[in-house]
Write a structure and sequence with these properties.
This protein has about 120 residues and is α+β, with helices and mostly antiparallel strands. Helix content is about 40%, strand content about 25%. The chain starts with a helix and ends with a helix.
Length: about 120
């Protein structure tokens, strides 16, 4: 579980790096909002409308119908994040998962080893 949490943060950092290396800006409409996934729709300067299948990165506190600024990778317009947010918002949840996992697992491992 700890490895997965670290990989999640590394993947978020890699996505941010991809976006920042060839960044585009747009105003998007939030189509649906959830804790883990929010769907958005936005138009790029070339006039194409994008509705990324995986939603927007870092969707916390979005509301359906809201208009937000987004940053996207011009090389891959489906890779989009809420403007001003980055992988740092993934660190606290990842660390929380690691801590909770080990708080539960450590006593169980200790007890199992003691019984053996």
């Amino acid at each position: 579980m700890s490895t997965l949490a670290v990989l999640l943060v590394l993947a978020a950092w890699r996505n941010d790096r991809t976006i920042s290396s060839n960044e585009g800006f747009a105003t998007a409409e939030v189509l649906s909002a959830g804790r883990l996934r929010s769907a958005v729709s936005y138009v790029t300067p070339d006039g194409l409308t994008h509705n990324p299948p995986l939603g927007v990165l870092y969707p916390t506190n979005l509301v359906a119908g809201q208009r937000i600024d987004v940053e996207y990778a011009q090389s891959d317009p489906d890779l989009v994040r809420v403007a001003g947010r980055d992988a740092s918002v993934a660190v606290i949840p990842a660390v929380s998962v690691i801590v909770i996992t080990w708080v539960v697992a450590a006593p169980l491992l200790w007890y199992t080893r003691k019984r053996s």
